Every structure is written in C-alpha cells, then in structure tokens.
Amino acid sequence: MKKILTICSLVLAGFLTGCLNDDFLDRQRLTDVSPEAYFTKPNDFKLYSNQFYNGLGNSLNWDIWIYGWENGTDNLIGPQPNMDFNGQITIPVTEAQWSDAYSRIRSINILLANTGRAKWEDIKIYVAEAKFFRAFQYFELMRRYGGVPWVNKPIIPSDSKDLTLPRLSRDVLADSIIADLNFAIGNLPSHSTVEKFRISKEVALAFKSRVCLYEGTWEKYHGKSGDPFAVAGSDGSKFLQLAVDAAQEVIKSGLFLIDKKGNEPYYNFFNQDNYSSNKEVLLWRQNNRELIQRSFSRSIWLASHQYSLTKNLIDTYLCTDGKPVSLSSLEVSDAGLPDVVLNRDPRLAQTIFYPGVPFTIDDKTGAVTDKFKYPNLLSAFTGYQFRKGGSVKESSIQTNGDQSGLIYFRYAEVLLNYIEAKAELNQSGGASLTQNDFDISINALRDRVDMPHFNYSDVITDNKDPFTGKIPWYLVEIRRERRVELALEGFRKDDIFRWAAAGDLLKGKIFNGAKFQWFVDQKYYSEGSIKYIDNDGYISPWLGTGFANEGGYKFNLDRDYLFPVPSQEMLLGEYESNNPGWN
Description:
Blueprint: H1 2-7, H2 35-38, H3 42-49, E1 76-77, H4 96-112, H5 120-145, H6 160-163, H7 170-187, H8 201-221, H9 237-252, H10 265-269, E2 281-285, H11 296-302, E3 308-309, H12 311-314, H13 337-340, H14 346-349, E4 358-361, E5 368-371, E6 406-410, H15 411-427, H16 435-439, H17 442-448, H18 473-485, H19 492-498, H20 502-505, H21 517-521, H22 546-549, H23 567-573
Antiparallel strand pairs: 1-3, 2-6, 4-5
C-alpha cells in the first residue's frame, strides 16, 4: 500500500485530472482546503467524482486501448510472445497495478467519508457513482491478485491498524464488490434520464453481470480437486445466478438494441464519433481532436501497433450456413487473403483488412479513394491485419486526427453474459435453458450480420474445438460466439483464466497466421524475404526463437492464473503467504 501512504499528505492530489467543468478552476486551491470545508454542496461532490471516470481507461496518441489488451493470447500476437503466459513472472517489490488502484480507492473513500455534509437526496447519485468506481477498482485488483485488503475509509498513516488490513478471501471480496454495485444500482438514475457520459443504473447492472460471470465461472472451473485456486465450499452458482439476474434486468428494460446500421453494421459500430443516440451503447467517452490529440485509427490503419490476428482466431468463425468449418459443406480456404472471408460469418470480413476493402474514405463525400491491397508483414506480422475499432476516414488517419468515441459498455456483452451464465447454471442443474434464451441473446447478435440462428435442438459436435467433450456442446458454441463477437475488446485473457483453460489454449502453444505463398504469388514479397514460415507454409512470427524451440508457452497451471502480491505489500500487510505457487 505504498501509494496509499504517499498520497495521504496531499488529501485531494490528482483531483483536477478528472474535472470536466471550468467552474472548478476558479475555486480555492485544493491543497489549501480540507475535505470538511469542501464537501458542502452537491456540485462539490459532482466535480470531485469526475476524476473517477479516468479510471475506466484512456486511449491517447498511438495507444490502441482495448484493441491491444489481448496480446499474446490465441486471438492476437505481436513480434514477441507475452511473457506473462510463459512462467517468467517474478515477484516485484512494488507494482503500479496495486498502488494505482489503491490510490484511486483512497480518493473514492474521501468522498464517501464526507457524505454527511450535504443533503442526501442531492448527493446520492455521486455517492452511487463512487461506490460503482470502488467496485470497478477492486474487480481490477481481484482479477490480478485474487483476494486483497478491503479499504473502506481514507487511510491514516499514524494508525497502525490501517496499515495491516488482512487480505480478504476472493469470494468475500467478490461479495463486497457486489454490495457496492447493489448500492449503485439502487441509487443511480436510469439510462433514459441519466446525464450524458455519466454512469447509469443499467451500466452498474451490466458491470455486475460481468463481475458475477467472472467469479461464478472462476469458482466453478477452478473448483476441481487439487486446483490451488479453488474457493472452499463454493461452486460459483450463487454468482452465476446473480449474473443472469443482472443481465436480465438490462434486457427487460427495453432500452437497448443491437446496432444494425450501414452495409457493414458490425464494422461500422466500432468507429463512430458520436454514440449519443446509439441504443447498443450503455457508456462511452467522446474525444475532441482539438483537445485530445489521438492517432488511434492511424495506428490501426498502419498496423504500427504491431499486433495482428492469429490463424487460430480466424479458424473459429462459422461458415455462412451456421456450421463450423469442420462440419460445413461450403468451400472454405485460407490459401490467400481474399479467400479467408468467403463463405464465412460476415463479422470476420468486418474485423480484418483484406484486398478490396475500403482503405481511405473522403470525409466530405464518403467516396472510397483507396482500397486495401495487402498488409505490411513487418507490422502486421501474421498477415491478418485487423481493422475493427478504427476509422479509415481521411481525417481520422491523419496524425493526431482521430476522434472516434470509446465504448466502455455495450449491450452485446450483456447478452453474452446472460446466455453463458444461464447455460452454466443449466449444465449444473440449476436453471432451465430454452430456445428463447438463445433468441434474445446469440440470435440477436447474429441478426446484425444475417447469420443463421442458433438452434438449441440441433446438436453440434465440432471435433476441432478444444472444448468439445469437456463441456456441453451448447457451451462450446456459446464460447465461440463470445470469442467472435467480442474479439479484440480485451476479454480473451479473462475468459481463458476464468475457464481455467490455459492448459488447452495457451500452454505449449506457438501461434501462426496467414499462408505466405499468396504474398509471393501476388509479387508483394519474394521467396525467402520473410524468414519465419513454418513447414505448412504459414507465417509464424515466433518461429526460430528460443521460445518456439523450447515448445511454446510454459504456463504454470498451479501458479500463473494469479500474479504475486508485491513483496513490499506483503511486508506492510504482514501477510503470511502469497498467492499459490509464489511462496
């Protein structure tokens, strides 16, 4: 908790970073006031709570935000493997993920400690926001470290008891997170009446469905005998039911719909400047190129981020008859980039660049002024360059020219949380699963791109899928749908970890990409110009490295699902043991 201690003397340090209103700049300097003198008016609470929104994440300059978070998974790779998956993590002395989260929690607790200084009805919205963001920060900590200390007041450095708070067990921590979210849900306005860009009741419900699905499946799949991450006495069903209930409340609100606009509705959804009237978006952030200079779309356009999709992900997409590649009678080929998208789920063509797709669009006329030909294999190393999330408008691809909105929560995730949690409960005998459950979730997503509906009565057995035979067939297909719909949105690592699936999806893996011969045939590259081509002719960026020669990822299944608590925090908290495998 070193960060907590260092900010105690500042009281409200960092406050200005979240202020969205110039009125605040005319006030007395924050370092010259005390919380007791400040928290007296509703607007004080509102202005103070603005800073919490920065904790949701930013995307500035060349950063591509969520679209790089899946690096090293079976979805997305760069020039080097992700060493977090290779058993190479070491115990740090301190770590920003720990200290920054507790710094934000302390700021939140300052607001919560001063709620008695104003009329409750006037400030309850901002108190609810604070509890939502405290839950958000603790969920970030739980995903990384498991159980952590629960701090619900501003730490006082002179109080030794505050410095040695115990680590909660992860299930108790999850209960505490849910309690904060329940408070937020009960005191936030509905999406239909909430102030623009602020948290609504439905956002809190959406996040609750995410948290509960995560914890429910973590406890279920890590609950097998001998798993060091098992939660004693719990099978996760309590949290899975809470996930269903939270998602269902969002669905029943009738406020949200899947966006189907445009000739490429899936691609178009992710590169809009303004989501104010978009019924799929629950919360988003607007960017103004005059105030915040970003090269987000340019980085995706050039692949300068150096991330590209894996063949493993490409192979996951269904054929246009609704069947996996292994079961479809349709012609499917990966011989060249134009072939990959043929007869496949349209979301694939709307996720990657392939020859002929618009590469530059005139802002004023909407005319396509340049079409994509081939990727630069020194940037998009696998040959599968993604376009999801970026705009190709001429203004957007200029340096510091992009102003696409950032989506924090969208309805599609809520639908996927609902169907997965419901199916997990059904598999455990805790809930019935019907065709209607699929119609309001997966089939609503498929309607966006005119894919055939999922039919619960038609059993699918895809022997190419690593989960087949380990979980019910319908869960295999739900996981496929989640992977495809949410590809590159930052969920894949969490999904692999909560399913305890690193043994199937990461350990011993070396991921490859497109067939190289097509690039040679088109005279874009010459034979031998790219050295990392595997025996089957696929581009394999990690080929020939010590990592590949040693057999791929060396994920430690008994240790690497959680990061170690930093050594300094272990000493400050007087903790007897670290996370499994780190003692």
